[in-house]
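Translate sequence into structure tokens.
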Amino acid sequence: MQKIIECVPNFSEGRDMNIIKQITDAIESVEGIKLLNTDPGKGTNRTVVTFVGDEKSVVEAAFRGISKAAELIDMSKHSGAHPRFGATDVCPFIPIANATMDDCIACARELGQRVGNQLNIPVYLYEFAATAPHRKNLANVRAGEYEGIAEKIKQPEWKPDFGKSEWNERSGNIAIGARNFLIAYNVNLNTTSTRRANSVAFDVREQGRKVKDPNGVDVIQPGKCKSVKGIGWYIPEYGVAQVSMNLTDIQATPVHIAFDECVNSAHQRGMRVTGSELIGLIPLQSMLDAGKYFLEKQQRSIGVSEDELIKIAVKSMGLDELVPFEPRKRIIEYMLEDSNTSPLVALNLKQFANETASESPAPGGGSIAAYVGTLGISLATMVANLSSHKKGWDSRWKEFSDYAEQGQKLKDQLLHLVDEDTRAFNRIMDAFGLPKSNDTEKAERQAAIQRATKHAIEVPLRVMRLSLESMSLIKTMAEIGNPNSVSDAGVGALCARAAVYGAFLNVKINASSYTDKAYVTSTLQQANEWLTQAGILESEVLRIVEDKIK
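Result follows.
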């Protein structure tokens, strides 16, 4: 599979959109690059650009962007709130998919050599690409900023990794590195005081602050959050001070914890957090975890849809206070999605029905079975969520939240299989379309048909398994869920049984064309067992439902 590496250069221009556009145009001129986000800031006079590609394309795109920035940005005339020392201030590479940190280190070194040799810009490698311990931390490398590098570059310990040890007055220096995924995140305060914003930053960031011990000696008082760097600044563009943070290990400190620690510190110091601002992109899981965190604080069910969790995260952290927060443009997985990967589930109900009723053989029974299964578990999840906040059942919210979360996971897996069944059918058609003009081609074609056929068996088999699993949850909701919704559990059971039976028919028809008879025999034996179990569970659920609604 293709390696995907993310590159996030920060350019020292956030006000002139013409300059920014020329830089991003240079980046996008490289084939194989996908520009994910361009995030300019007027107050910081800095633009964060995010793009992805394979090793070769990201290095070439980064070089073209850096070259264009060197041509257009004069650092002798630059000012802004954010620390900086170059026209392209930093340029990190981050492994995203099928790539390693070693791949990113190699990218950093290749780019550094090209920038130093061809553009005559002094280059420092940082983080995992650093050539010495004192160069690992970006703050150390950038200390003194642009105004101090003319003298700093003469010091032996700050000899550039690439390029001459000479001050480049126009372009400054550049830090090129390899690092883990980092979230750049600002929290807004109801103050204009940089000093007070810094006091919150010092409370929160891992480095903390210097204080005097009882003997009057300076010691470091650590902050609350591991792997968080932070400073306070005032942004005239918004008219507020912010705590500006880099979360360098989102497992150690998730974004919602950093936010809440800022809330606590601000409150203790007589201030209030009014919202927050994401710079660049954020992983989907970070948003889902945040949504669950804030729902749990309210003692509300976390078994809600992905979209709802994101909405809760956005509103809870005020991510839309300064500018609209558009999940499809700010969450990295959404930006990397191929818009054609889920054509069926993207349709509305009427469009889906019309597509099914058309003369095309797909979507067919397999996709419909998966969708009926999705509806069945969705009803059970609804019962769980209604039960979690039923009046008088407050002490049971967590119990039903857990059930609802299980239901959401099953729902999402079955929903994925709606399109996967159609893709499986299309793979068989593609295999039949392969050339067969000689014995070699005939053999390759037959092997491709068999591989595609096996996949077409396994997809409805998964629908059967997941739908059967959902019936246990449906039965539980019929037994202990909100009694006013017991009929919904009954309908859910009918849908789930239909999904199991419908998927079973697809397993059988595809298995008839598969030549591995031992596999076919064991698979059909398993499928028949699941079909029998589904029938038993359906009867049990319907009996419970009928007893409760007599």
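Note: The chain has a mean pLDDT of 94.
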